[in-house]
């Protein structure tokens, strides 16, 4: 007679939380890479003020992507809940 493995919802929850934490870490690394790319583009253009008309379009685009990542991270952190 085979031993049946019973479904434990706590295992799924812990696994999902681990996946969410890993995703948050990956997104945070991407955000930091974008920070670096933004600085590089600003230095290349010689303009670091986003309100300046000469501010590079690429830096604007990268900034928008970074802000989207930060919003996603914040939403995932709310879903994940407090760390133990």
Number of helices: 2
Distance N to C terminus: 40 Å
Q: What portion of residues is helical?
A: over 70%
Structural class: mainly alpha
Instruction: Characterize the main sheet.
Output: none
Q: How would you spell out the order of helices and strands?
A: HH
| Radius of gyration, in angstroms, nearest whole number | 20 Å
Q: What's the β-strand tally? A: 0
Fraction of residues in β-strands? under 5%
Q: Give the low-pLDDT segments.
A: none
Mean pLDDT: 88
> What would you call the shape?
elongated
Any descriptors?
84 residues, mainly alpha, 2 helices, 0% strand
Folded structure, characterized:
It is a single chain. The chain has helices at 9-45, 57-80. The protein has 84 residues and is mainly alpha-helical. It has a domain at 32-84. The longest helix has 37 residues, at 9-45. Helix 1 (9-45) packs antiparallel against helix 2 (57-80). 73% of the residues lie in helices and 0% in strands.
């Amino acid at each position: 007679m085979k031993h049946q493995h019973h479904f434990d919802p706590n295992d799924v929850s812990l696994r999902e939380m681990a996946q969410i934490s890993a995703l948050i870490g990956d997104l945070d690394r991407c955000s930091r890479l974008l920070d670096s790319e933004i600085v590089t583009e600003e230095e290349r253009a010689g303009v670091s003020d986003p309100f300046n008309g000469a501010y590079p379009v690429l830096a604007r685009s990268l900034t928008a992507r970074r802000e989207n990542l930060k919003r996603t991270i914040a939403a995932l952190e709310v879903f994940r809940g407090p760390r133990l």
